Amino acid sequence: MEQLVLAFSCDPVNQPLCIPESILELFELPVLFGSFNRSMLYTFLAALIVMVLLFVTYRRRASVPTKFGAAMESVVDFVRNDIAIGVIGPGGEKYAPYLLALFLFILVGNFLGITPFVMFPVGSRIAIPVVLSLITYVVFVFVGLKKKGFGYLGHLLWPPDVPVALRPLIGIIELVSTLLVRPFSLAVRLFANLVAGHTMLALLLGSGVAFMIAIPEIGIMKGGIVGVLWFLLGMAIYMLEMLVLFLQAYIFTLLSAVYIEDSLRAAH
Fold it and tell me: Which of 84, 113, 238, 268 has a 20 to 30 Å separation from 194 between CA atoms?
């Protein structure tokens, strides 16, 4: 019985799915040179798109904004009012620019993963989520140290709201959780969700297309029906993935605001 196999040498007619000789082939850009790869290209592209969106929105403040301007302003107001001020509280508006840039960059980078002819989520390489989480880490630790000095670390080691007998244990847990676990969990959460969603889409859509291409070899019943069902399931996941990509940008930004608020509260 004939089977679809993954081949080391790509034969699109007989073996529509191929294993690359090196995983680096997924990131290389043959038209460019040096160490500049797809990940770098789409990272810069995501940042450029965010800058263009904000520039176009605010370069001319019309009394009656366009539909695009109204949509962008609603996003800005959402991040400013619901995340920055809503989570951090009074004074949270000064952190809104950072949170807005973070939200838009992650959102645009995520949606590159479901953009036809791109299909490359920026956060699917662990370096990007790690850098973003480290920036958030520096921000909330700096906020705590600026507000209270080294008393911020003392507050973590000796939390005043905990019974004295439990303070040594809770203090160690709080210190490790705040200074070590938070940046790690923030990065891994974004990375794992993007990789899992993108892998599922690639498997479903790719398998559907592969079965349909192989109809002459394996027959209409196996290739056609299975391929169509697999492809339709992939499209359903594709629609769900749009919501997931938005939620991941929202969760990352929301947690960043929560960590900043926690540093400010700990400093009092």
Answer: 84
| Contact between residue 262 and residue 152 where contact means Cβ atoms under 8 Å apart | no
What is the C-alpha separation between 122 and 223, in angstroms, rounded? 33
Structure tokens at 169: 């244990």
Instruction: Using pLDDT thresholds of 50, 70 and 90, give the confidence band for residue 40.
Output: confident
Maximum distance among all alpha carbons in the chain? 75
Question: Residue ranges per domain, the chain?
Answer: 45-134+180-266
Q: Which two tokens stand for residue 75?
A: 């996003």
Residue 128 CB partners (closer than 8 Å, separation 6+): 39, 43, 109, 122
> Three-state secondary structure along the chain?
CCCCCCECCCECCCECCECCCCHHHHCCCCCCCCCCCHHHHHHHHHHHHHHHHHHHHHCCCCCCCCHHHHHHHHHHHHHHHHHHHHHHCCCHHHHHHHHHHHHHHHHHHHHHHHCCCCCCCHHHCCHHHHHHHHHHHHHHHHHHHHHHCCHHHHHHHCCCCCCHHHHHHHHHHHHHHHHHHHHHHHHHHHHHHHHHHHHHHHHHHHHHHHHHHCHHHHCHHHHHHHHHHHHHHHHHHHHHHHHHHHHHHHHHHHHHHHHHHHHHHHCC
How far apart are the C-alpha atoms of 219 and 206, rounded to whole Å? 18
Tell me: the pLDDT tens digits for 48-84? Answer: 999 999 888 887 766 667 888 888 889 999 999 999 9
Cβ neighbours around 153 below 10 Å, total: 17
Q: How far apart (Å, rounded) are the C-alpha atoms in residues 73 and 64?
A: 12
Please give the structure tokens belonging to residue 115.
């953009």
